[in-house]
Amino acid sequence: MKWKEEDICLESLPTTPATDSTVIALSEVEKSILEQQIRVPVSKPGFFGIYRYASRWDLVFLLLSSVASIIGGAALPLFTVLFGNLTSTFQDIAAGRITYDHFHHELNKYVVYFIYLAAAEFITIYIATVGFIYTGDHVVQRIRVEYLRAILRQNIAFFDSLGAGEITTRITADTNLIQDGISEKVGLALTGLSTFVTAFIIAYIKYWKLALICSATLIALLLIMGGGSIIMMVHSKRALECQGRSGSFAEDILDSVRTVVAFDAQNVLAAKYEEQLKESEAPARKSQITFAIMVGAMLGVMYLNYGMGFWMGSRFLVDAREHVKVGDVLTILMSIMLGSYNLGNVAPNVQALSNAVAAASKLYSTIDRASPLDASSESGKILGHVKGNIVLQNVRHVYPSRPEVVVTNDLSVYIPAGKTTAFVGPSGSGKSTVIGLLERFYNPVAGHISIDGHDLYTLNLRWVRQQISLVSQEPRLFATTIYENIRFGLIGSEYENAPEASITKRIHDAAKMANAHDFIMALPKKYETNIGGFSLSGGQKQRIAIARAVVSDPKILLLDEATSALDAKSEEIVQAALDNASKGRTTIAIAHRLSTIKEAHNIVVLVHGHIVEQGSHFELMGREGVYYDMVQAQQIKQKEAAKRHESMTFFLDEDYIGGGYPMDDEDDFSDDASDIVLKSGARQRRRTRMSMFIPPLPSKHKENLSLWALFKFLASFNRPEWPIMILGLCASTLAGGIQPSQAVLFAKAVNTLSLPPFEYHKLRHDANFWCLMFLMMGLVTLVIYATQGTLFAYSSEKLIFRARSQAFRVMLNKEISFFDKEENTTGALTSTLGAETKQLAGISGVTLGTLLIVTVNLSASLVVALVMGWKLALVCISAVPVLLMCGFLRVWMLDRFQRRAKAAYQQSASSACEAASAIRTVASLTMEKQVVSSYEKQVQAQLKEDILPIFKSSALYASSQALPFMCMALGFWYGGTLLGHGEYTLFQFYVCFSEVIFGAQAAGTIFSNAPDMGKAKHAAAEFKKLFSSRSTNKYAESKAIHVSSMQGSVEFRDVSFRYPTRLEQPVLRHVNLTVKPGQNIALVGSSGSGKSTIISLLERFYEPVLGEVYVDGRDIATLEKKSYRSHLALVSQEPALFQGTIRENILLGCTHKEAVSEDTLVQACRDANIYDFIMSLPQGFNTLVGSKGGMLSGGQKQRIAIARALIRNPRILLLDEATSALDSESEKVVQAALDAAAKGRTTIAVAHRLSTIQRADMIYFLEQGEVVEWGTHKELLRRRGRYYEMVNLQNLA
User: Fold this and answer.
1) Full-model pTM
2) Which residue, 260, 474, 705, 955, shows the most beta carbons closer than 10 Å to its own?
C-alpha cells in the first residue's frame, strides 16, 4: 500500500522492535514526567484564607455581622445590671425608703430598658445571623464553582489516582464542613466570647472583691468541662475503636454473605460479632456516665456559686465601709454564671471553625494545582488548516497510576490524512492508549506525536481536542434533550455561533449520517426528547454519540471499540453509520470485532505495546500471522451466531413499545436512562413474551409509624432493664424538683439580704442558713443527675447492644435477593448497624427521663407560684409558652441551619459529580466552560431561593434570643406594681418570678440536652422495617423435607431465571443439564452468560422463575435449606475468610463443629494442600488471618477455603472460578488441591481459564443464558465451535 510522500515531511520511521518485556526501568526524566501528571501540592489556608473568594460586599457584610455579633453578645449581660438595680429599688420600697411615685417611675424606667434590650438583642442577632449565613453560602458557592472549574481542567491521570467517590466527598461533605464553619457558627463564637468578656467586666465594675471570689466558679466550670471532656473523649475513642473493629467484622461477613449462608455459619459468626460488640459496651457506658456526672456537677457548681456568693455578699453588705447593695450582689452572681457558661459554649463552635480550615485545605490543594494538561490554557499554536496526517515516533507510554508497567514502548506509526487506520490486538496491548495520547489525556514519557508535521505538544490543547471527535465504547450522554446532546459536538467549532436554523440543519444532517434521524423522529418529542427521563437502548445512544462526533465535521475521528457493547443487529446499523462518518476524514478505529475494520486502509496489530505486523486486511491474511489467527477464531463465532440468531427470536420479539414507535435495534439487556442523571424520569417497561412470567414488582408504600409504636418496638429491646429504668425515672422526677426548690431558696436569700440595717444580725444568721441549703442543693443535684445518668447509660447501652446483635442476625437470615437491592449494599447495612443504631437512644429511657424532668420542673414551679401568689403567677404563666418555644426554637433553628446547608446543594452537587465522572467525554468535547457555567447557574439559583428562608429562620432565631427579656419585663412590671401597692412581699414576688420565668427558661434549655428525636425516629422506623420484612418462599420451611443423605445427581429442567432486582434482563433461558453422581462437569462461557447463576440456584440463593432444579430426583424447592446445604460446599473466586484464626475459619465448614476431631481437621488440610504451610507458621492453626484474610496470599487463602469446603465431606462440590484470581504458580498448587478434592464426589466448576477444566467429564458452554454446546474437551475441539474459538483466543492472548 503506497502513501503519497508529499502528504507530510516524514523522518524515516524505525520499525518497532518486538519484545515481550513490558516492565522496564524508567529514567529520572521519565519519572519526573509521570510525577508531574499526578503531583498534588498541599495547600494550608488559615481561617481567613477560606475567604479567598469573598467579594468586596461579602467582606462588608462580614464586618457588619461581626460587629452585630459582638454587640449582641455584649447586650446579653446588661440584663443582670437591670435585674440588680430593680432588686435594690424593690428593697427600698419594701423598707419604705422611697415614695410610691418615685418607685413607679424607677420601675417603668427599668422595664422600658428591658424592652430596649430585647429590641437591641433582636436586631443585632438578626443582622449577625443573616449576614454570616448569607456570606457563608455565597463564599462556599464560589468555592464549589472554583473547585469544579479546577477539577475539569485537571489531566486525566489526576483522576486515575483519586479514590472512588473522592470528588463527590469533596464537593458535598467538605464544602458542607466549610459552610458549617463560616456561617452562623462564627457569629455564635463571637457572641459567646463577647458575652463572657462583658459579663466579667460588669461584675468587676460592680464590686471587684466579690467578683474575684465568684470567679472561682469559672475555674470550677472549666475544670469540670475540660476534665469531663477528656475522660469522655478517652472512653468514646476506645468505644469507637471497638465499634470500628466490630463494624469491619460485620462488613466482612455481609460482604461475603453468600459464603456465610452456604456454610450455614450465621449463628457462629453472629456470636463472634456479639463478643466484639460487648467490648465497646463498657467504654461507651463510661462515656455516658461521665457526661451525666458532668451535667450534674455543672448544675451543682451553679448552686454552690449562689451559696458562696450570697454568703460573702451578706458579709460585705453588713460592712458599712464596702457600700454594697443587694442588687450588686445579684448582678455579680448572675454575670459570673452567664459569662462562665457562655465561654463553655464557645468550644463546640471553635471546633466547627477548625474543621472548616481542614476541609478547605483539601479543596484548595486541588484548586491551586497547576494541571500539566490544562484545556483552559490559551498557550500553544493554533493552525489555520488541518489535513489530518498523524505520526507517532518512538512513543513510549507509562500510565502514572501504574508506573511499573510500560504500555507502549518505542511505538512508531504513520496515520495518513483522509484514510482509516485500525489498531487491533488482545486486551492490554496498548490500542486505547494511542487514542488517549492523541486526545492528550496523557503525556508519553518519551517520543513525539505530530499532526501535519507540527509537534502535538506545541499546539493549543483545547484547539487540538476541537479538531478531533471521539466515539467511545460507553457513550456518555447528558441529561438534557437529544438536540442539545448533539449540539455539544459543535463547541469550539466554526459553526458554534451560527444562526439557529443553520445549526438545526447541521444537527439533522449529522443524525441522518449516524442512522439516528429516523428513530429520533419516531419518538413522541422527537429531538426535544429529554434523555434524562427516557430510556434509550445502547445502539440508540451510540448513534446519538456518533451524530455528536460528526456534527462539527471534524478532520480526525477516533473510534474506540464503538460497537463492542452492542448486539449483532445494533452493531450492523451502528457500523454502517460509522463507515458513513469515516468517509473523507482521518479515522483511527480500535476494534475487538475484526469484521468491523476489514475495510480499513491500514491495520496495525499490537501485542504488549509493540507493532507485530501492519497492512491491509488482504495483506495480513496472506501473511497468516497473528491477525490471521484472530480472524479465523472470530469467523467461527460469526457462523455460530448466524445459526443461533433464529432460535433467539422468542426472546427478542419486541416490535413495539406502548407509544407505538418501532424500537428497531432495542439492545437486549442494558438500559440506563442516562449516564448523567439529574432527575431520573419514569422509564417505560419493555415487554417481551417472557414478561408474562415475571412477578409484578411490589409497590413501594411508606409505612408511617407513630412515635408510640416505635417506642414500644424499642422498649422490647430493653425489657430486662425495666426495673433499672423505673429507678431512673424516679431519679428524673427528683431532678425535676430541683429547679422549683432552688427558686424558693433564691427568693429566701434575696429576701434575707434585703433586711434593713437594724436587722443585720438576723440577716447574717439567716444568710448562713440559706447558703448551707444551697451547698446541700448543689451536692444533691450532683448525686441525682449522676444516678439518673448512670441508670439510663446502662439501659441505653444494653438497648444499643441488643438492637445491633439482633439486627445483624436478622440481616444474616435474609434471602440473598435482599442484598442485591440498591438500598441494601454492604456499606448501607454496616452503617445501619453502626451510626443508625447509635441514634436509637433518642427514643429510649434517656428521652423519657428528659421529658419527665421538664414536666415535673414546670408543673411543680407553676403549683408553687400559684400557691405563693396567684395574681403574679397567672400573668407570668402567660409567658411560659413563649419561653418554652424560645428554648425549643433556639435548638431547632441551629439544627435546621445545619441541615438546610447540606440538603440545599444536593442536586447541583450530583450534577457536578456526574460531570466529573464523565471527565473524558467532557474533556474530548471541550465542554468545561459549559459545565461550569451550568453548575454556576444552578448554585446561584439555589442561593436566590435560599435568601427568603434565611431571612425567616434568622428572624425566628433572633426572636428566641430576645423574647425572654420581654417576658422578664412583663413579670417585673406587674410584680413591681403589686409590691408597690403592698399586696405582695419581696419574698412572694421573687418566688413567683423565679419559679415561672427561670423555671420555664430552664425547661426550654433542656431541649438542647435531649438527643435528636427526628434522627432517632427515622432510625427506629428503618429498624422496624428491617425486622418486619419477611422473606417470601415457595415452600414454608416448616413443611420442607429434611435431607439426611445425598447421592449427588443434579438436573436442571427447562430453568429460566432473572434476578429479582433486574427483572427486565433474562439471565438463564430454558437451561437443561444433567449431572450424574460423582461426575465432574464444567460450565464455561463469556462473562454474563449465566455460569455463576447456576451455582447460585443450586445453593438455593434464589428460586428459578420457570422450571425446576432436581437433586437426587427431588425438587430442591421442597427441601429444608439447612439440611440440604449441609451436603454442598462452595469455593468462590474470592475466598471469604473472616477475622479469627485459621482453625476457626476452617471449622466454619463443619455441620457439627463440636464433633470434629483434630485428625479430621488435619486430613482436610492435607487434601487441600495447605497443611505443610500451616505447620510452618509459628502459631500453626492458631495463626490469625486478619481482616478478609489479609495476612495471607491469594493462593493460601484459596487453599484454606478448599479445606473449609472439604471438612464438610460434601456430596456436591461447587467451584466458582476458584483459580481465576491467582498467579500461575499459585494456580498450579490450588488446581492440584481441587483435582484431589473432586475425587469421589459430584463437582460443578465454573472457569474462565479453560486449561483448568480440560479433564472434566462434561463441559457445558453457555452464551446469553443458554446452553449452546456440550461435550468433553476433545469432542468440543473437534466440533470447532464456540469452545474451540475460546481456546484459540486464550492461546493467542
Assistant:
1) 0.69
2) 260
